Input
Amino acid sequence: MVIKNFQALRDMAATAGRRTVAVACAHDEHTLEAVIKAHEERLLDYILVGKEAEIIEKGKIHGASISREDIVNCESDEECASRAVSLINEGNADFLQKGLMQTATLLKAVVNKETGLNQGRAISHVALIDVPKYHKILGVTDGGMILYPNLEEKKDILRNAADMFHGFGYEEPKIAALCAVETVNPKMPETLDARALKEMAEAGEFSGCCVEGPISMDLAVNREAAAIKKYESPVAGDADILLVPSIYTGNIMVKALIEFAGILMAGCVIGAKCPIALNSRSASFEEKYYSLLACSMMTEKK
Output
């Protein structure tokens, strides 16, 4: 099964059953707009953590009468983050969404050793991008969390992304360990890591995915380029996930596509006890809406 675009993701979410999102600092107009729309479409339920009066007032802007029973009144960002995380641990919510707060504030609560959501694995970011010229949705990781991942961290990043696509129904997602070239060069350490990841996959260390690397961007997404260069791989021209060598590679790639090509993006943090819909405070309604749906699809219905 392949998710061709965000509309297909939305259609799939409509058949998957409703999960409950805990929204930290929900007193944000775009965040509320996305949550309200998904709720009205019967895609999810919500618990809104934040400033009660502002949440109710901003809900009215979008024609929603939000019940006080669905709100946990908190004033500070730190209190919002802590309470939202506790809702997950208590089993009252299935996943998190960041509202009007600093990312670091929410993640501090998430990684708290005593009360957080750690699972002993590195937490990483996946940007889902809907590129009209490509034949399906692409995942790009990690352009948002780990600055210069070493090989061990790349293993966690790979597993996290594979788990995400398994949640979407992919049996064996195809992962391209991107480099500037498709050959191993000792002067380019990322090519050594890419080869090591491929060898680990071939040895069965990563279940349920196909890993190729080193592989260049054009070969990962363009079948004709792969044919011309005689690069044979089931991943070539058909990648599901692009594993980038550093945060700046993924960050610049995705932001350039957003700014210059007008693509749609959804952002999710994975590797914790639950997925987190994590977007910039300036992110559009569409980005927050599709991030919610992506996280919902990754969460098992209770």
